[in-house]
Amino acid sequence: MRQPDDTESFLDDSDGFDAFYTSTAKRLVATVYAMTGDLTEAEDAVQEAYVRAWQRWPRLVRDGDPLPWVRTVAMRLAISTWRRTRGRLRAQFRHGPPSEVPELSADRVALVAALRELGPDQRQAVILHHLLDLPVEQVAREIGASSGTVRTRLSRARKTLGEQLAEADSTVTAKGVAVHD
Question: Are 35 and 73 in contact (CB under 8 A)?
Fold first, then answer.
């Protein structure tokens, strides 16, 4: 009778998945939230991505680090949901956030608003590279684009974000709400 090796016993063990989930879930929710600007949608997309990862867990572990796969699935799910519910989100923004949502800082609001001005491809590149500190080459692999394309998206996104954030900063300063030294 053949004895399972260490890899096989790890693959059969749900503790490996539990440890993976515990160590990666919060940061992945934050990443998808930065992409979508909607915490509930981010949590839903991440939860579904982990469900799909659990269904494929042995293969994902055997192929290497499962985090890029889970992150890609979560991002794609979030983008698909965003496209399907665009009208609902517009209505929510027209009527304002629910009253039980805590007040956000002006800087965070400006950043999320500026990220929303980017196209999905640029936003995804910025989040993966700048918020998760992934190298350009890894971002390119995860989104299925060349390194040059990723650099172009980052450059254009930084320009747009700079303009949006400078405009937001001058608007806030002009209203007398905040002054940055």
Answer: no
Which tens digit of pLDDT belongs to each residue from 25-78?
Answer: 999 999 999 888 889 989 999 999 999 999 999 999 998 899 999 999 999 998
What is the residue whose two structure tokens read 């059969």? 12
Question: How does DSSP assign 15-63, residue by residue?
Answer: HHHHHHHHHHHHHHHHHHHHHHS-HHHHHHHHHHHHHHHHHTHHHHHHH
Rg (CA), the chain: 19
Sign of CA dihedral 153, 159, 160, 162: positive
Check residue 57 and give left, alpha or beta (phi > 0: left; psi -120 to 50: alpha).
Answer: alpha
The amino acid sitting at 97 is P
Residue with token string 């400078």: 166
Cα–Cα distance measured from residue 24 to residue 152, given in angstroms and rounded to the nearest whole number: 29
Distance between CA atoms of 37 and 27, rounded to whole angstroms?
15
Instruction: Identify the CA nearest to 68 among candidates 142, 132, 123.
Output: 142
pTM: 0.55
